[in-house]
Specification:
Layout: H1 9-19, E1 31-34, E2 57-60, H2 68-81, E3 101-106, H3 112-127, E4 131-136, H4 139-160, E5 165-168, H5 175-182, E6 187-192, H6 194-197, H7 201-204, H8 218-223, E7 228-232, H9 240-247, E8 253-258, E9 266-271, H10 273-278, E10 284-288, E11 291-292, E12 302-308, E13 316-324, E14 330-337, H11 343-346, E15 358-362, E16 367-370, E17 375-377, E18 380-382, H12 388-410, E19 418-423, H13 440-460, H14 467-475, E20 482-485, E21 487-488, E22 495-496, H15 513-521, H16 523-526, E23 535-539, E24 551-557, H17 566-571, H18 591-594, E25 596-600, H19 605-619, H20 629-632, E26 636-639, E27 642-645, H21 648-660, H22 672-680, H23 695-703, E28 713-714, E29 718-719, H24 725-729, H25 731-740, E30 742-748, H26 752-766, E31 773-781, H27 787-792, E32 796-805, H28 818-826, H29 830-839, H30 842-850, H31 852-873, E33 875-883, E34 896-897, H32 918-929, E35 933-938, E36 956-960, E37 969-974, H33 984-1005, E38 1009-1014, H34 1017-1025
Parallel strand pairs: 3-8, 3-9, 4-6, 4-7, 5-6, 7-8, 10-25, 10-28, 11-18, 19-23, 19-24, 20-23, 24-25, 37-38
Antiparallel strand pairs: 1-2, 12-13, 12-18, 13-14, 15-16, 16-17, 21-22, 26-27, 29-34, 30-33, 31-32, 35-36, 36-37
């Protein structure tokens, strides 16, 4: 299986952030120079050294042609577009004195390696720079980067027509440096910091004149290329010795990529933990913790595993208690118990359980109550003497349960589920003194796995739709489903703990290249459903190597130490999963239903989550939280007419609007009132005339101040809601389902002449390009100076400031392939793009000279908008023979947290429904008590309508009782479920497509299903009765 890569906007934004800093740089395909040939040793055998050999010519990176002022202006423009604080100067670094040092902040799991590989390709395409060095902090990351470059090579070959040539620096293979210097195309050297900042003899070779390198120093050959240095995880390469070593590369610029920059430089892009979660670019996190708390007045052992709900039955508790066996020893067994169960009886008379009954089982609060007054929450362990072994067994069991829950859900999607156990010593998994070599954890795993699989197979017998999954569970023997990844001893071939770094940034991490090699080599094999291994045990020292996208469950079977943060631990499992074709499961409709990482920890849920929240909050410290006129002023917003800068008057009006409506707290942070009004689409109408038309474009700015960290869900709470079989089988629902369950394909036929005409009109009317401006300040040095003035840059008094507008672009010496850039950004043919550009008025076209970069971006945006409109207008649907299976209501149904479910329902096809908003909750209450409604369903995520702007999942299917209304079959979208005003463009297009879908079903199949967007039940009734 090969992983597939696609161009994603958020990654393109991160690439552009760096590339646009150098806008105006002329394109040079490398500057030719003569590589230092070195000195030959006197030839003892004449044939060994040919004195006539000519030294090769090299191609080094061209110098940056822009002035520091131009660079700073470019940086500030990039920062404005991204709502970042503006830099007042370019920050220097000891790693590259005098060169630009740019920070790109990207959350773990969002593909920063892909981003910097693409950035290299783009810098080469636009400016001709071709020599790059990637510096990494560890062997694990080095091996991972090399693997990523190899995996993406074909993808970049298709996009750019060439691919990077990479090699790992090795002091004994110096011929690679000759090729690096002389070859054209993108040349990439990958080096780990230890290879040139440590004092070992081998690592010093980079600085020595070497006989086997014609008496040259490798560092001189490298630095002659003026390479662009990319640092991966710079916070781990911050020691003075490392920075001094980096400076010897004589870098043209340094680009730093990390989720956590400890030493700030010039930040040009931010995609932090909050952005990544809100944009659904990483998995969401769920936690299963263990709460240790004894029972009142007894030393009894009790572990509440979970509360289960099943069709037509009352909730039951899955409880582990001690049981006196007939043969004598006491064993711990899991039992399913109902209200009224006497634990003394179930334990076969163990005295500690005397007089203990279950008095209540509550599925919404996830608790049981006992006769002694104790309230026990799911995940609570009550024991007189909690041993580490008891906790580890429970953790292993919880990982297996969470794994099988996920696997059952995702099997139909073709997604292989992997679970990862981190342990701190190999002997716990592999014990070579035992005949079967199983360590304690492996033995516990096999016992628990077999018991849980037997139980699940018993449940699955009842599901016809689950036949394939049943076969998958039965296919592999318990020994085949788990595997250990550790360092291997070369003599005995046994798994061992392996060498670990004891000091420095890599402390606690493995030094073993071979172990990382194996993890990376097996990455794709483990993603295949044909491969039996689904549970992986690995040493915690190897954690840096594990970033397999299909890790869904992590079990921390080790003492938690402070050296590794919770965020780092879970970072290994945050990437979005892929299916059997290597396609990423990132459909915005279902992304967080599928991609959820469950962490099974031996801490309580609240302790783990509080710790994690604090770590994420601390990482967001640099984000602005307070509204002010100063914050809004000068920011660039996207409006219908293009980019617009927020002037002071508009910033004042927005701030006053927020204050007046109690949308700000005393300290100017966003209030709960604002968040609630935004959620329900009930924001107050502004009174200011200037603000009215602009508010919707300003809201993203306001929302950027909301730094509420999403709370990981308690993974024990969500449950599969039982289907109400009677309602599901009702003839009204079956008739409605039969009318809408067609699978369809769409096609778009539009006339390119119409698109050309519309695009020309839009460009002439709306295209706005700001002329490039430069500011000239004159000043004189102050008479009296102190050190503080110099430090703060206040040593000069400004005597005059003048802003000049460039009549001819400062970048006019740069050649732009205008047609190429427009076709690239709009995916139209060159002929269509040429027709549009040649059709605009001379005044519109003249704007290109003012600011070519902005002209290209804005023109492409307007053309794309016209394209989107044309696509929706000319869309037609054709029904296929294939239909959606009813299994999407049962087997593929995701689990729901019943805390948001309200009361048990009578007319819905499930007993409970979880709603997203107050609007939906009220809508459900009205439907369930309505005389006219026969049956209704919140449509499952598996039911979706394909559209050119992404899949669309309607909210509700409602069947009315015949004779009570005019339109019996109705599909509704409730307005309150639109998550933000920003989405309205895409959302509106999807709704328009859905109208066409239902219209075509009605027309072609003689159906009579009505589809509409409604805000509440009253509006729905008006639509079905008229």
């Amino acid at each position: 299986m090969k992983l597939q890569f696609k161009i994603q906007q958020y990654q393109t934004d991160a690439v552009d952030a760096v590339v646009e800093v150098f806008a105006g740089q002329p394109k040079h395909d490398g500057v030719s120079y003569r590589i230092d040939p070195g000195r030959a040793k006197p030839a003892t055998a004449p044939m060994l050294f040919d004195a006539n050999a000519t030294s090769e010519s090299g191609l080094r990176n061209a110098e940056i042609a822009l002035t520091p002022t131009q660079l700073l202006e470019n940086v500030q423009r990039v920062q404005r577009l991204r709502n970042l604080p503006l830099s007042d100067k370019l920050v220097d670094s000891k790693a590259a004195p005098g060169a630009p040092n740019l920070d790109v902040e990207m959350e773990t799991g969002t593909g920063k390696t892909y981003v910097y590989i693409k950035t290299m390709m783009e810098l080469h395409k636009r400016y001709g720079w071709s020599k790059f060095i990637i510096v990494v902090p560890s062997v694990a990351i080095r091996e991972g980067v090399k693997k990523s470059i190899d995996l993406t090579a074909q993808h970049f070959q298709q996009t750019y027509g060439n691919k990077p040539r990479s090699f790992i620096y090795n002091s004994s293979q110096l011929h690679e440096l000759e090729r690096f210097s002389s070859d054209a195309g993108v040349q990439v050297m990958i080096i780990n910091i230890q290879a040139f900042n440590s004092t070992s003899k081998d690592n010093r070779r980079i600085y020595d004149e070497l006989d086997d390198f014609q008496s040259r120093r490798p560092i001189d050959v490298i630095s002659a290329n003026r390479p662009i240095v990319i640092i991966d995880e710079p916070q781990k390469i911050s020691a003075p010795k490392s920075l001094e070593a980096l400076s010897r590369f004589s870098a043209l610029m340094v680009l730093r990529y990390s989720a956590t920059h400890k030493v700030p430089h010039t930040k040009v892009h931010r995609l932090d933990a909050l952005d990544a979660y809100n944009q659904k670019l990483v998995k969401k996190i769920a936690v299963r913790g263990i709460t240790v708390k004894g029972l009142a007045g007894t030393t009894a052992y009790l572990y509440l595993d979970a509360i289960e709900i099943a069709k037509g039955a009352k909730p039951r508790a899955r409880v582990e208690i001690e049981v006196q066996t007939k043969s004598g020893p006491i064993s711990r067994q899991v039992k399913r118990l109902d209200v009224g169960a006497h634990l003394h009886d179930h334990s076969n008379g163990i005295e500690a359980y005397k007089d203990l009954f279950i008095t209540d089982i509550d599925a919404t609060r996830d608790i049981i109550e006992l006769s002694n007054g104790d309230v026990v929450i799911a995940g609570q362990l009550s024991d007189r003497d909690v041993t580490v072994e008891a906790k580890r067994r429970i953790q292993i069991r919880e990982v297996i349960r969470a794994h099988i829950d996920k696997e059952r859900e995702l099997f139909a999607h073709g997604v292989k589920v992997l679970s990862l156990f981190f342990i701190d010593e190999v002997a716990k998994y592999r014990d070579y003194d035992r005949e079967d070599t199983l360590g304690d954890y492996a033995r516990i795993f096999e016992e628990e796995y077999e018991a849980i699989v037997d139980e699940i197979l018993g449940e699955l017998e009842l599901h016809i739709a689950a036949a394939a999954y049943r076969a998958y569970l039965r296919r592999d023997d318990v020994h085949a489903v788990h595997e250990g990844y550790f360092s291997i001893d070369k003599k005995t071939r046994h798994a061992v703990d392996g060498p670990v770094h004891t000091t420095g940034d890599e402390k606690g991490q493995s030094k073993d290249v071979n172990a990382y090699d194996l993890i990376l080599k097996d990455k794709e094999r483990l993603l295949s459903l044909a491969e039996p291994v689904r549970f992986i045990f690995s040493h915690s020292a190897l954690r840096e190597g594990w970033d397999n996208p299909n890790v869904f469950v992590m079990g921390m079977l080790k003492k938690s130490d402070n050296s590794v943060s919770r965020r780092q631990e879970i970072g290994r499992g945050l990437r979005l999963a892929v299916d059997q074709h290597g396609e990423r499961m990132d459909n915005p409709v279902t992304v967080h239903d599928i991609n959820e990482l469950t962490v099974v920890t031996d801490e309580s849920y609240t302790d783990f989550v509080a710790g994690l929240q604090k770590e994420i909050s601390d990482s967001l410290a640099a984000r602005p939280r307070k509204a002010s006129v100063k914050f809004f002023m000068g920011k660039i917003i996207q409006t219908e007419g293009g980019e617009s800068v927020v002037e002071e008057a508009l910033a004042q009006a927005l701030y006053k609007y927020l204050v007046k409506n109690d949308y700000l707290n005393e300290d100017d942070t966003l209030s709960d009132e604002y968040k609630a009004a935004k959620e329900t689409g009930a924001l107050a109408e502004p009174t200011s005339e200037a603000l009215k038309p602009m508010l919707k474009f300003l809201l993203p700015l306001v929302d950027s101040l909301n730094v509420d960290v999403p709370v990981p869900t308690d993974d024990r709470k969500p449950k599969k809601v039982p289907l109400n079989a009677a309602n599901f089988a009702k003839k009204e629902f079956q008739a409605l389902w039969h009318r809408i369950n067609h699978k369809v394909v769409y096609q778009v036929e539009f006339d390119s002449s119409e698109l050309v005409a519309n695009s020309i009109h839009a460009l002439d009317k709306h295209l706005q390009v700001a002329a490039m401006q430069y500011v000239v300040q004159a000043g004189t040095q102050r008479d009296a100076l102190d050190a503080d003035d110099l430090a703060s840059g206040a040593g000069f008094d400004v005597s005059s400031t003048a802003t000049h507008t460039a009549t001819v672009s400062a970048a006019s010496q740069v050649k732009y392939d205008l047609l190429g850039e427009i076709t690239d950004k709009t995916k139209l043919t060159r002929r269509t793009a040429a027709a549009i550009l040649s059709g605009v008025t001379p005044e519109t076209f003249a704007k290109f000279r003012l600011n070519p970069e902005q002209f290209i971006t804005e023109a492409a945006r307007h053309i794309n908008e016209q394209k989107a409109t044309a696509i929706v207008e000319h869309l037609t649907y054709d029904a296929l023979e294939d239909r959606f299976d009813t299994a999407i209501f049962t087997e593929n149904q995701t689990k729901q947290d019943l805390t948001h479910a309200g009361n048990k329902l009578t007319k819905h096809i499930y007993d409970y429904v979880v709603t997203d908003s107050k609007v939906e909750r009220e809508f459900v209450t009205e439907l369930d008590t309505s005389q006219e409604v026969a049956v209704y369903a919140k449509l499952p995520r598996g039911f979706s309508i394909p559209t050119p702007v992404g899949d669309y999942n309607p909210d509700w299917a409602i069947a009315f009782t015949e004779g009570t209304v005019k339109h019996i079959y109705f599909v509704a979208e409730t307005k309150g479920s639109l998550s933000s005003l920003q989405l309205k463009g895409v959302e509106a297009a999807k709704i328009e497509c859905a109208r066409k879908f239902f219209a075509s079903l009605n027309e072609k199949n003689g159906e009579n299903v009505k589809y509409e967007v409604v805000t509440d039940y009253t509006e729905l009734m008006q639509l079905v009765t008229t």
